[in-house]
Amino acid sequence: MSCTSLRQLFDEMLDRLELAFERERQFTSDASHELRTPMAVISAQCDYTLERERTTEEYMDALLVIRRQGAENDEADQSYAGFCPAGDALREVSGRFR
Description:
Helix content: over 70%
Distance between the termini: 14 Å
Low-confidence stretches: none
Shape: rod-shaped
Strand content: under 5%
Mean pLDDT: 81
Order of helices and strands: HHH
Number of helices: 3
Largest sheet: none
Radius of gyration: 23 Å
Structural class: mainly alpha
C-alpha cells in the first residue's frame, strides 16, 4: 500500500469518526431532552398538586398524569438503551485494519 493511499484511507477514517462523534453528540442531546421532559412534567404536576388541598378525584388525576409521564420516561430509556453511534463507527473502522 502506497503512502498516498494509506494517507487517503486514514483521512477517510478520520472523516467517518468525526461524523460519528457529531451524530453521537446530537443523539446525546436528543436523548437528554427526551428523558428530561417527562421528569419536568412530573415535577410540575407534583408542585401544582401540592399547592393546596385537593379532592380525591383531583389527586387521582394528578397521579395518573405522573404515572403516564413515568411510563413515557421508561419507554425513552428502553429506546435509547445500548445505542451508541460512535461505537458502531469505531467498530467499522477498526475492522478495516484487521
